[in-house]
Amino acid sequence: MKPIWIVDDDESIRWVLEKALARENLATQSFSSARDAMAALQNGTPQVLVSDIRMPGASGLELLQTIKAKHPGIPVIIITAFSDLDSAVSAFQGGAFEYLAKPFDVDKAVELIRRALDESLRETDIEQGAAQTPEILGQAPAMQDVFRAIGRLSQSNVTVLITGESGSGKELVARALHKHSPRASQPFVALNTAAIPKDLLESELFGHERGAFTGAQAMRRGRFEQAEGGTLFLDEIGDMPLDLQTRLLRVLSDGHFYRVGGHQSLKANVRVIAATHQNLEQRVREGLFREDLYHRLNVIRLRLPSLRERSEDIPILARYFLAQSARQLGVEAKRLSPQAMQFLSQLEFPGNVRQLENLCNWITVMAPGQTVEIKDLPQDLVEERVHAPQPAQIVSAPASAAAVAAPVVYADPAAAAAPVDAVAGNWISLLEVEAAQMLASEQPEVMDILGRQFEAALIKIALKHTHGRKNDAAVRLGIGRNTITRKIQELGIGGAEDD
User: Fold this and answer.
1) CB-hemisphere CA count at 13 Å for 205?
2) Residues 27, 340: Cα–Cα separation, whole Å
């Protein structure tokens, strides 16, 4: 962490703050004039700047203006013995984090510096995240299409909507779009809209003024201001509350916004890249997402394939993640044996690239030896693969509104002898074919019909497995006894015993 700079022509003030911050184990660097601090900015920057407002030569307001022009993310606390309204207004208009009048309580001053330090470290995390982003890896044709799209968009500022499953690497694509754009030298700021409570999301996006709500003890810049001149990545945009969708639409439409509790319109020069794992068209139809915002975001759509669609990339990704986790821990990178690599390449990875990365971190820490065999992988992963149920073939009932009876499900005796990758996902493929046929024939209530067939098939198999005992079948399926009883009645399933 960088030191806290103290700029004051009063030596006693510098001494008091130095000693108080030293007790908090915080490093400091002191200057007797604003000019000295400005000169020091050529060789380094502070984590937080604490400056007197009136000093011989350049004033604290001039220093504030200089540092905000070059390093807007550094919080500046202005201290003055002239606690008049004009000084306070000038300080806040210049972007000061807080205003503190002499004589001040030392403990309160340290508390204020602590708050500014937290804000500064938050800004630093944003900058470091962009600087440490790895390149996207992939040789599969589906990923080559993504790379070509990034290349075509490299000189554009157009809004992009990235779709894809959770964990497939949507933020990496957004960072790549930023890195290869004309805004590459400016900030890349990411915000997961689903991870922020609704009451705080507005402040996170647009910032707030001091006193805007309980706990708003200082003005705070939002993500739009932090990303000024650069790129703002809004992840999981489909989960954004409707009232905030309206505010976001206004920013995208006219480029202006207000901080929470503010009355001054601010101009946003920001490129917005949004991402979601949800079906936004469906969200629009359900009234959960504004159609006009959807069209604003959906200028260019970039679909990111799941890891299942590019399983040939698993070896190169696994080697990269093993090397990365080894560097982080300061150990030698582990290697996967050919058999272990083939085993991983045949897994489904529902968590996509993120799941593979977490697995490689586990291997680095937990697997014995430098060469990792299948037996060294997480036991639950191995057991799940070895004892996976044999795929089933589905003979579907006629696609009609009355066709709610369960399909016939039977084990395929040839499946056990077939290669794993030849049968993986077979029943899903058959389901997709059935759904496509029903949709093509404009069959109504497709979701309801297939859902009832799916539930009936599961319950029938579970009852057969438990010899008709409903309670045991419910336990095996992970549902309640009342639920399975109701489903049996609704679906007209026979062969169940009252136990």
Assistant:
1) 31
2) 49
